[in-house]
């Protein structure tokens, strides 16, 4: 598990240090740097997957800024404008972008050079870096805020959905993944653990997915089918409470609200989590009603309780409160949860870390931290 991460000269941050836990929530103002934390991890993973971080500098190795996981532009887009030397990074004449990650007590550092002669390149040569890291090999999912929308068909790629087990950053391969892994059992590290839904008809992935989706929309069920002769698969919804021939008339995703299709990749990512998994999620609450957002938090907590690590960017007080309830109910321990609140005034970002106690209470409530409901109520009562 990643216990700590430091970003140096990266995007909005001259230096940012964050403690991470089994379930970490990144909250706060828009454009305050929350996504940069996820992008840093995605950037390292992307550079390893493409073998860029195992090549020598002379062979063109380095950080690959544009790929399947993140698209960050050019070197000048990621170098912090007020960059400077840092003691953790090598002392060289070139400006450096650096990442320091502590994984289970072992610290690894990567430093990539900014070539002043070629600021528009999308590969930053490595000045220092670990050849191997657990981050490069562990089961991994990264779902962006811009996920799949309701569509008639979705791509069918054996290499991505089956060989890599990857849902795609937009969740575009989720339907094909479900089709191939319908009968796969959802992990249960602890008998009676929270990840397996008790109302599901079986421990198999499709039935578990349906049960959790019914938390978001009662009575819904899903089917996935290949479209013969094409490289596409079809998703359909029913509202009879069962899958298959006993369900009510099937409906295309385009005739159902955004929320179900938007949430489906998040549900599948959590249900397929293992104790080794790292899951990065942006706005899992998008397009869900308040109760659905709370139940989504219960699913995130259940996935973390299996031993997976989740780092979640959210703007939802319902997700926050769902996490607090999970701690109070004993699904997660207080030390398993980390909350970082990002705030700033345009000149910099401050990060405050409220802690949750065993009763789900927060030890502090910083100004601007999910307090708009109270602010609006004060105006209404004034």
UniProtKB/TrEMBL annotation:
This is DUF3696 domain-containing protein. Residues 333-380 form the DUF3696 domain. Residues 249-321 form the ATPase AAA-type core domain. It comes from Streptomyces gancidicus BKS 13-15. Signal peptide: none annotated. GO terms for molecular function: ATP binding; ATP hydrolysis activity. Residues 1-46 form the Endonuclease GajA/Old nuclease/RecF-like AAA domain.
